[in-house]
Inverse folding.
């Protein structure tokens, strides 16, 4: 067995054994098995990745099994390994392994642990199938597989109605995107006669300028296909319009949010666009759409993130916003920058989520930041880890010297947007800088509310529940509750991810975003469209552009310091002054209400009408029941005629005779 | 005498027939054992049949022919499509007997006899090579099902069985007239001969409509579907399994075996009708399924939506569409059968089909919850299960013909996810709000072994569908060839180098193309 087969199938095997056999092997064995499997997969993944970083390693495809052969539609189970795969392998496996480890501590009191670990490993398997896919249908398999795992994990605490609702929402909204993905695959098969990724990419440029019928109109082939595929990406990566499931997905346990809804699954859309980048390069329309939607999502999610009070929801919207960055990077042609941000984001966002989980763990499951405060001294390790994550996401660094991970990747995206010649790159650049300001603000707001100031947690119901006191009875604002630092199983993953958040940008920048020999060789062994010209232009932008994101970051920081550290009531005053806007942001731009009104209520209403009026009222009434009625009524009539009285029969006979005679006479 | 010279199909018909007759005179428990034994023998024979079926060999294999009275001949023989559907029947049959083991307490011997007779008729339908023989099997299948619903059904069983009978019989009468006319016209009732007989286009239209009347009801297509929910709700569990698993497939089989190859021109002519009804069915019945309070009704409505994918898939006239439709038929046979078994498991404990009476079953019935989840996902069409392969291929085929139909039918994957997950949530998730539901025991050994073989088959068909596609490949391509001259292409046409869409391209000169984009 080759190492890639072990990497992919070991988590599946562990998931099956832990999921089905946990009664036999016991809790600890199930947890150890899944965690161990993931650490083995991680250990095998890094050498593959490093061999691509070093260069000279060719891409290869490992066949597994025939899947479907139907006429000229053929696709197999196979594992493709190239640079893109290798990046995703280390991201997925490393984060997954650390999340498995972290869950030992975080889920310690849960009665259902083997099921949780089995789902995590199942997710990892599906994600690995997605990133190793050599054809679109296997990618779709992974795509749906991660969707299933996400559904199961969001609804892990299945007694909670809110968790169940969020799980269904996540699955169904993703299915809307999948509709686009599926139609895209059908279109590709119709046009190219194959669904194999390398074959499609090889011939795609030749098809530019062809048209195809779609819903009664004629449209550009490549634009249609790319837009349909991108709709799929929008669903999975929670882009504007199909993003509503992601914040609700925070109902799942926090390690799940870190793994699935920050580091890996939600980046699948970005991965898909990068994997198919030569295809997207043939359609300017699709690229413009990606740019606009990505940039708009980046700013939309950032504005909503400004006012949320649930610590996980802030990070969720932050994720949504950062995904927007990755998309508009792809849309402006800087696929390598998108992948770089995906790579660094995985580390610092997983770190932030796991850090938040550690805070929640310390705060007796309280998630509302209004009831935190001053936690810096109580949980110092968590604090420093979160600090590393915040420095990374806000992109702290000195131009030309060094910086945290986000400094390299986010700045690369903003600079590429400036340098790009794409139609909407100016919009993307402007939004990128503005969103960087907002990112900095909401990230620091989170830090200040959580770790600075005075403890405010006696107002939290969770804490009151824990110390059995109401705020009136309590002697001070802590109520005697002392948060404790999380166990080692949770702090070790934090430390490792913090290392990544600090150094991942600096170490790998040459391969990802520099068009020197290292970068060109690195991307040459993948399907990613590496635009050397754009990369050179990106590094040659004017100094003010390079400084713009740093200035935005500092501005956000200063506002946050003023509002949450210096002033006492600035947030409240501001909220009052701009009340409509505050409400608009707080209610997430009213997307949920809109969709409820537009889709969910009508669906149930129509369902009821079709059933009660359509089936029962019309079809049955005039169909079988009507037929029965006719028979019954008709026979009643016949019965009445057969009265048995001779005079009736005589009368009828007479009338008949008269009628017959008059007919003959008239003729 | 060589073992392969045995009239294997006749034997497969004789075994359950003889067992059925003996059952009538046996006592309850011996009838159960006998029925299980006979269906297992047929399963073994079926496996033998599959193993000895030569893929890529003659179109019709295991052919038997004998004179019977008048124009009707005892002609049997199978191609790959028949083989797969016979396998589905013989696979589900022992499971049905097992599901009825304790659930049926009255008139057990008659019940078992009715099921065995049902098996005879199902195999007969798929193996018949004579038009009249086919008709007899096809219509006689109504009788045992009518009895099963009418005698062993729920409280409103008389209405349901009457509705079932009325609907299905009306269509068949017209089909019988058409068949008699065909036999007179072609001078033979031999199906393989008729397959290559060219009827006049004008006659084809009427013949097609006559067959359609029967098959559309059996399928069932919207708007002649309303017998199905009632029949399912009132039928005993095993009756639902056979109804959804095999009887609904007879409509699709009919389209595949008769309508398309015998009347290709008419099939192409009526494609709008099929597509229109199917598109309505997908949206309409999915939405109706969403608001159901009765588990069996919900799954029944979902069946109508799935069968609509079969009809659009069949009438694509291309390899993917047809193969996909057949896989959907097989997959739906397994999955909906399994879902009805899942309903039966909890119905046997609580004696209600109302969804709200359950809840939180993951807690007290974890094994049940896992298997139910698997079948739910297969019904939704998750890749890796049988449902995906079928739907994907069928819809990929439809896309070649009509993008409108593809778009509408593919929304079925969204709505399907919505109603199935909503069902699963209300049954398996949430708090244990009903004490009696919370006290239910997990699957016992018998129930576990009824469901796991289906689960294995569903996964097998999802991961390595080649086992199921390979036998039907040649037969499907023969049908595709036969209908090729009439193959329609609606709105998905591909045009190379169209100046009309130049503005969407990278590096396009927009000035040049602006005039071309006007139309």
């Amino acid at each position: 067995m080759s190492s890639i087969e072990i990497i992919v199938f070991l988590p599946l095997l562990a998931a099956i054994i832990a999921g089905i056999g946990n009664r036999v092997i016991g809790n600890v064995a199930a947890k150890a098995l899944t965690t161990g499997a993931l650490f083995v997969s991680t250990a095998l993944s890094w050498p593959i990745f490093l061999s691509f970083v070093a260069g000279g390693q060719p891409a290869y495809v490992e066949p597994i099994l025939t899947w479907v052969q139907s006429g000229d539609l053929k696709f197999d189970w196979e594992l493709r390994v190239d640079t893109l795969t290798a990046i995703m392998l280390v991201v997925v496996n490393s984060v997954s392994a650390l999340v498995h480890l972290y869950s030992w501590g975080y889920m310690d009191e849960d009665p259902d642990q083997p099921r949780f670990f089995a789902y995590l490993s199942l997710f990892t398997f599906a994600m690995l199938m997605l990133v190793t896919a050599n054809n679109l249908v296997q990618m779709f398999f992974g795509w749906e597989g991660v969707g299933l795992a996400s559904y199961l994990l969001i609804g892990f605490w299945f007694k909670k109605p809110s968790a169940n609702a969020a799980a269904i929402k996540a699955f169904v909204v993703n299915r809307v995107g999948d509709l686009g993905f599926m139609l895209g695959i059908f279109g590709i098969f119709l046009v190219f006669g194959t669904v194999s990724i390398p074959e499609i990419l090889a011939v795609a440029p030749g098809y530019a300028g062809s048209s195809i019928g779609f819903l009664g109109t004629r449209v550009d082939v490549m634009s249609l296909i790319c837009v349909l595929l991108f709709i799929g990406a929008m669903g999975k990566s929670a882009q504007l319009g199909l993003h509503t499931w992601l914040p609700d997905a925070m109902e799942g346990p926090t390690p799940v949010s870190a793994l699935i809804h920050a580091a890996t699954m939600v980046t699948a859309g970005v991965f898909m666009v990068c994997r198919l980048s030569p295809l997207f390069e043939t359609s300017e329309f699709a690229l413009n759409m990606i740019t606009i939607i990505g940039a708009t999502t980046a700013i939309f999610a950032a504005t909503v993130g400004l006012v949320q009070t649930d610590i996980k929801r802030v990070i969720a919207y932050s994720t949504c916003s950062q995904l927007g960055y990755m998309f508009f990077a792809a849309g402006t042609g800087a696929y390598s920058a998108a992948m770089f941000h995906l790579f660094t984001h995985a580390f610092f966002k997983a770190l932030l989520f796991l850090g938040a989980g550690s805070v929640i763990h310390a705060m007796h499951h309280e998630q509302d930041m209004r009831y935190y405060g001053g936690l810096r001294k109580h949980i110092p390790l968590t604090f420093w880890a979160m600090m590393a994550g915040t420095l990374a996401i806000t992109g702290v660094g000195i131009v030309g010297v060094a910086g945290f991970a986000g400094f390299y990747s986010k700045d690369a995206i903003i600079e590429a947007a400036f340098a790009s010649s794409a139609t909407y790159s100016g919009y993307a650049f402007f939004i990128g800088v503005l969103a960087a300001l907002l990112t900095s603000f909401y990230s620091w707001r989170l830090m200040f509310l959580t770790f600075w100031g005075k403890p405010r947690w006696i107002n939290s119901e969770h804490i009151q529940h824990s110390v059995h006191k109401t705020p009136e009875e309590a002697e001070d604002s802590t109520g005697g509750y002392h948060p404790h630092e999380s166990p080692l199983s949770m702090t070790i993953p934090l430390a490792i991810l913090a290392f990544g958040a600090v150094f991942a940008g600096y170490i790998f920048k040459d391969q990802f975003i520099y068009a020197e020999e290292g970068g060109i060789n690195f991307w040459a062994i993948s399907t990613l469209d590496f635009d050397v010209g754009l990369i050179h232009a990106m590094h040659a932008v004017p100094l003010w552009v390079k400084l713009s994101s740093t200035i935005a970051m500092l501005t956000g920081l200063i506002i946050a310091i003023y509002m949450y550290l210096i002033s006492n009531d600035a947030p409240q005053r501001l909220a009052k002054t701009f009340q409509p806007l505050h409400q608009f942001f707080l209610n997430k731009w009213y997307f949920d209400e809109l969709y409820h009104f537009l889709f969910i209520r009508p669906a149930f209403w129509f369902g009821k009408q079709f059933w009660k009026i359509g089936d029962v009222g019309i079809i049955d009434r005039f169909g079988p029941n009507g037929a029965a009625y006719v028979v019954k009524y008709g026979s009643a009539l016949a019965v009445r005629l057969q009265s048995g009285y001779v005079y009736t029969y005589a009368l009828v006979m007479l009338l008949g005779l008269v009628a017959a005679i008059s007919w003959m006479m008239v003729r | 005498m060589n073992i392969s010279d045995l009239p294997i199909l006749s034997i497969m018909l004789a075994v359950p027939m003889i067992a059925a007759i003996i059952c009538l005179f046996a006592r309850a428990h011996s009838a159960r054992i006998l029925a299980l034994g006979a269906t297992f023998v047929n399963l073994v024979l079926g496996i033998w049949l599959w193993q000895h079926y030569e893929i890529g060999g003659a179109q019709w294999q295991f052919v038997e022919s004998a004179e019977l009275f008048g124009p009707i001949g005892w002609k049997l023989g199978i191609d790959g499509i028949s083989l797969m559907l016979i396998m589905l029947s013989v696979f589900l049959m022992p499971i049905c007997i097992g599901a009825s083991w304790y659930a049926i307490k009255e008139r057990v011997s008659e019940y078992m006899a009715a099921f065995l007779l049902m098996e005879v008729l199902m195999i007969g339908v798929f193996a018949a090579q004579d038009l009249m023989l086919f008709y007899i099997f096809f219509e006689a299948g109504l009788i045992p099902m009518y009895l099963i619903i009418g005698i062993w059904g729920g409280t409103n069983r008389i209405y349901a069985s009457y509705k079932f009978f009325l609907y299905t019989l009306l269509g068949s009468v017209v089909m019988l007239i058409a068949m008699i006319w065909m036999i007179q016209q072609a001078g033979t009732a031999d199906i393989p001969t008729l397959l290559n007989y060219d009827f006049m286009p004008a006659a084809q239209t009427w013949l097609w409509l006559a067959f359609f009347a029967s098959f559309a009801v059996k399928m069932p297509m919207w708007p002649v579907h309303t017998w199905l929910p009632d029949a399912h709700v009132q039928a005993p569990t095993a009756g639902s399994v056979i109804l959804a698993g095999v009887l609904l497939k007879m409509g699709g089989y009919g389209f595949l075996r008769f309508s398309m190859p015998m009347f290709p021109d008419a099939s192409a002519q009526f494609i709008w009708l099929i597509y229109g009804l199917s598109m309505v069915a997908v949206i309409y019945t999915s939405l109706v399924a969403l608001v159901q309070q009765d588990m069996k009704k919900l799954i029944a409505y979902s069946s109508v939506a799935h069968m609509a994918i079969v009809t659009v898939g069949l009438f694509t006239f291309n390899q993917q569409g047809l193969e996909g439709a057949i896989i959907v038929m097989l997959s739906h046979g397994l999955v909906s059968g399994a879902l009805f078994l899942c309903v039966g498991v909890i119905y046997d404990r609580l004696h209600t089909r109302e969804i709200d009476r359950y809840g939180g079953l993951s807690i007290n019935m974890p094994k049940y919850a896992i298997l139910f989840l698997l079948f739910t996902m297969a019904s939704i069409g998750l890749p890796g299960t049988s449902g995906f392969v079928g739907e994907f291929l069928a819809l990929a085929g439809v896309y070649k013909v009509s993008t409108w139909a593809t778009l509408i039918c593919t929304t079925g994957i969204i709505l399907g996810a919505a109603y199935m997950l909503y069902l699963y949530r209300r049954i398996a998730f949430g708090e244990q709000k009903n004490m009696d539901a919370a006290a239910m025991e997990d699957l016992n050994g018998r129930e576990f072994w009824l469901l796991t073989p289906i689960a294995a088959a569903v996964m097998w068909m999802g991961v390595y569908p080649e086992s199921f596609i390979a036998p039907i490949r040649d037969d499907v391509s023969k049908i595709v060839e036969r209908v090729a001259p009439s193959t329609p292409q609606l709105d998905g046409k591909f045009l190379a180098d169209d100046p009309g869409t130049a503005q969407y391209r990278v590096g396009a000169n927009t000035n040049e193309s602006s005039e071309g984009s006007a139309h």
